Amino acid sequence: SQTIHQWPATLVQPVGSPLSLECTVEGTSNPNLYWYRQAAGRGLQLLFYSVGIGQISSEVPQNLSASRPQDRQFILSSKKLLLSDSGFYLCAWGAGHQETQYFGPGTRLLVL
Amino acid sequence: DAKTTQPPSMDCAEGRAANLPCNHSTISGNEYVYWYRQIHSQGPQYIIHGLKNNETNEMASLIITEDRKSSTLILPHATLRDTAVYYCIVRSGSARQLTFGSGTQLTVLP
């Protein structure tokens, strides 16, 4: 069966510091991968998606970037965090026609 | 993607069936109905999806009306662990973004 991992689970970072969140998927090959952000009291916002190694599409302009160095690894990064980057970051994977997206456990980021 | 309307909250007694309604009157012919739930501080969990036929899996049943303008998610025997926010989403196959509305806070009472 497929599983998706995210770490760390929680993170507290000062403004201006760098960020690296990692997501890995097991049990599937060539998945589509997604990064979402869920701000408090708001819905999910799609940040990036990837259909293959090195292929990244950005949905919104922002302070963040994403990379996919391996087939089942997706990384979310920032060089300098802003207060507005605080939120719940979710990685998801999907595959196939009319794909269903499956979410990881999430990383809660607090920027102070 | 079409917009959905759900009641903000519902209660259900433990062991009874929980029936969660969703209206999606502007759904298009190629759009599927998806249900997810999110337990506090966890990632959303996929439950079930369907196009026009009723669907059942180990977690729940999905009943879609013949005109496809509304649907009902049924949890046949609710447990305390089913307490969560339930999201009804309408999405076409080509859409990347999953658009979560406000959802229904289901509270299962002992």
How would you portray this structure in words?
Chain A is mainly beta and 112 residues long. Chain A has strands at 3-7, 10-13, 19-26, 32-38, 44-52, 55-58, 65-70, 73-78, 87-94, 102-103, 107-111. In chain A, the strands form 2 sheets. In chain A, strands 2, 4, 5, 6, 9, 10 and 11 form a 7-stranded mixed sheet that branches. The mean pLDDT of chain A is 92. In chain B, the strands form 2 sheets. Chain B has a 5-stranded mixed sheet with strand order 1-9-8-3-4, with no helix packed on it. In chain B, strands 2-7-6-5 form a 4-stranded antiparallel sheet, with no helix packed on it. Chain B is built from no helices and 9 strands. The model of chain B has no long low-confidence stretch (mean pLDDT 93). Chain B is mainly beta. Classes of the chains: A mainly beta (112), B mainly beta (110). At the A-B interface, strand 5 and strand 10 of A face strand 4 of B.
How would you summarize this macromolecular structure in one to three sentences?
The complex is a heterodimer of chains A (112) and B (110). Chain A has 112 residues and is mainly β. Helix content of chain A is 0%, strand content 57%.
* Largest beta-sheet characterization of chain A: 7 strands, mixed
Helix and strand succession of chain B? EEEEEEEEE
Biggest sheet strand order of chain B reads 1-9-8-3-4
**Contiguous runs where pLDDT drops below 50 for at least 5 residues of chain B:** none
Distance between the termini of chain B: 37 Å
Which of globular, elongated, flat, extended, rod-shaped describes the shape of chain B? globular
Overall mean pLDDT of chain B = 93
Q: What is the N-to-C succession of helices and strands of chain A? A: EEEEEEEEEEE
How much β-strand is present in the residues of chain A?
over 45%
Please summarize the sheet with the most strands of chain B: 5 strands, mixed
